[in-house]
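Budget justification aside, the reviewers requested a transparent look at the raw inputs and outputs of the sequence design task funded under Objective 1. We therefore reproduce one unedited record. The lines immediately below are the structure tokens for a 411-residue chain.
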């Protein structure tokens, strides 16, 4: 089901909206929430939600009550009902003031947009409102040990038992599943061919008997990812999204939003201790004309900054095409691959500039800010895996954007 069309606002109405939003942000966003993002102070929703400060709680609750945790979602589901132009103005004004995101949640970024299209009314009212209000934290159950990039080969099975499904199997790379309340899952409900035609989309409460998680240590020393196990887990039939065996369509709708989120995720992360050029100047120094002393590093950084600018322009192009309802479907396919690859390229430049100071995440002789940058380099190696590997994304681009053949069975 598609959402009703919105009509463009006049320049006067948009200017009035901007002034109203600017005044509201000034009045409701505490100064402490206008500081650069600190990872430990990000606000994640959920049953076990903890606010890092009273200011953070005040900011979240103000946005929640105004619908600004999900600005473009309908008001009846907890959003603000803004059209794309208004949502862009809100984002611009929040950026201008340096406001932190009021809520982080995979439900906001991925599940919610898919439910708006494929969810029934009861599912929308139960889950979308809870997402907007930060009451439920979601994890994603797509990849499996034998079905990561080849998602159609998934084995987790949901057996029809009358009024419920009985789910058995395992999912892997389930980000923060050990802290999540619910998980949205692709499960096999038929062995028909093609394999995509036997997949359904289920919503599973993590508190259900038989659900367990095991964190996976990363090279950064953290455990963002988990393996999630389902052992005779009973799931009500009411938790089926879309049609039985029609989960592939829901999955593809969700992946569009996941890839969009992945391409823009850097803007939601903690900022480094120094920006790239500032770091390079600190590490290698500059000559009298302000040029970095390392000519090769200077050249590579210039290329990176040009690619970053081009990505920004691509995003603007997609935005304006969307407003005109003339989106070239090939362009959004590029954003996830290019955005995550460029983020990793930036990390490599940072380590090159740091030299010896970039060799350790734990050296007490290196400042905590620089050690964090090294840890971020290690963590960001996951960006070209999460949300679909770059190799598979390139297959999709080759097939759908360039008309070239790609391997069968790939997502």
């Amino acid at each position: 089901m598609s959402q009703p069309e919105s009509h463009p606002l006049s320049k006067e109405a948009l200017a009035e909206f901007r002034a109203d939003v600017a005044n509201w942000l000034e009045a409701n966003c505490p100064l402490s929430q206008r500081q650069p993002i600190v990872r430990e102070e990000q606000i994640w929703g959920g049953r076990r939600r903890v606010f890092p400060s009273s200011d953070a709680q005040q900011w979240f609750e103000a946005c929640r009550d105004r619908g600004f945790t999900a600005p473009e979602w309908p008001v009846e589901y907890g959003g603000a009902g803004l059209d794309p132009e208004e949502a862009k103005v809100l984002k611009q004004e929040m950026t201008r003031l340096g406001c932190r995101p009021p809520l982080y949640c995979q439900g906001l970024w991925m599940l919610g947009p898919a439910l708006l299209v494929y969810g029934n009314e009861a599912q929308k009212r139960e889950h979308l409102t809870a997402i907007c209000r930060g009451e439920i934290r979601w994890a994603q159950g797509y990849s499996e040990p034998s079905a990561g990039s080849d998602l159609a080969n998934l084995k987790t099975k949901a057996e029809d038992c009358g009024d419920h499904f009985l789910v058995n199997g395992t999912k892997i790379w389930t980000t923060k599943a050990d802290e999540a309340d619910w998980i949205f899952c692709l499960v096999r409900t038929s062995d028909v061919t093609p394999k995509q035609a036997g997949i359904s989309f289920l919503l599973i409460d993590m508190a259900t008997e038989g659900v367990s998680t095991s964190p996976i240590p990363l090279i950064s020393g953290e455990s963002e990812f988990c393996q999630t196990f389902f052992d005779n887990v009973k799931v009500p039939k009411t938790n089926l999204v879309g049609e039985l065996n029609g989960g592939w369509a829901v999955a593809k709708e969700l992946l569009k939003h996941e890839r969009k989120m992945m391409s823009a995720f850097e803007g939601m992360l903690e900022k480094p201790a120094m920006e790239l050029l500032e770091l390079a100047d600190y590490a290698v120094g500059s000559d009298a004309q302000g040029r970095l002393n390392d000519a090769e590093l200077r050249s590579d950084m210039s290329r990176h900054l040009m690619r970053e600018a081009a990505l920004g322009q691509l995003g603007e192009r997609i935005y304006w095409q969307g407003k005109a309802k003339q989106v070239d479907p090939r362009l959004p396919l590029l954003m996830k691959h290019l955005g995550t690859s460029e983020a990793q390229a930036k990390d490599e430049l940072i380590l090159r500039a740091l030299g010896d100071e970039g060799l350790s995440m734990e050296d007490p002789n290196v400042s905590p800010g620089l050690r964090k940058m090294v840890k971020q380099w290690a963590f960001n190696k996951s960006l070209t895996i999460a949300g679909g590997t770059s190799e598979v994304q390139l297959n999709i681009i080759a097939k759908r954007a360039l008309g070239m053949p790609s391997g069968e069975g790939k997502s």
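The longest strand covers residues 225-236. The two ends are 23 Å apart (CA to CA). Computational costs for records of this kind are itemized in the attached budget.
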